[in-house]
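Hi everyone,

Forwarding the result from last night's run.
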Amino acid sequence: MLIQSIAATAALGLAVTGAQSALISFAAGSNPNDPTLVSQFDAGSKITSILDRGPTMLNLLTHPDDGSASPVTSPVALLLTFSMTHITSNQIMPGLWAHTFSVSGSFEFRDQVTDDLLYRGTAGESGGVFVGLGTATKINSGGIGDFNTTYDIGPAGEAIVGFGGTQLPGDFGFTLTDINNGAGATLIFENGSVVGIEDFFAHSSFSGSFIPTPGALALAMMSGVMAIRRRRNV
């Protein structure tokens, strides 16, 4: 009964907040001379940085959850800085390895003409994760993601999605393909262990989502907990 009550309360809260959310995305480019992201390795700190190639211009799609028939396309500039530190490398099948890095940093989308902020995403306190797939010594493709992202919505973004705010909960994922035009990126070793990735460039696609700060959800959950306590005390 307790589990059912909590589930019902959570469902109510999601129903309240779910009507206002947004999905944002962009597709990977096809021009080998126009990559989305580049990397730099710092030998002193053992940090691999992922950056926008500067300037990175693209079309961002916003799918507001307001019944709109089609997404809104916005010409934007992507600004991105991630810092990655190697965690572990594992062979997942013969000839295929997964190399995992912790990720911190942020990204933002700004109007190409006015430079007004649409959306800014920041990896959560626990950080995001990069998983690169390839061989024991090279990464051929990969992805950066985080399910505890916080978003700030700028005026230009608020005009599209219909709500604003800061520190809104969400998620994101960048997929990296065509790394070094398909040649892959070589891993850097020190004393037999992976410490980073040699400098590379890559195409990237992206998707992310966010919802307003769930004040209504928190209120619903609190009401549900209070109701459960009253029933247990009767």
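The chain has three helices and 13 strands.

Cheers,
N.
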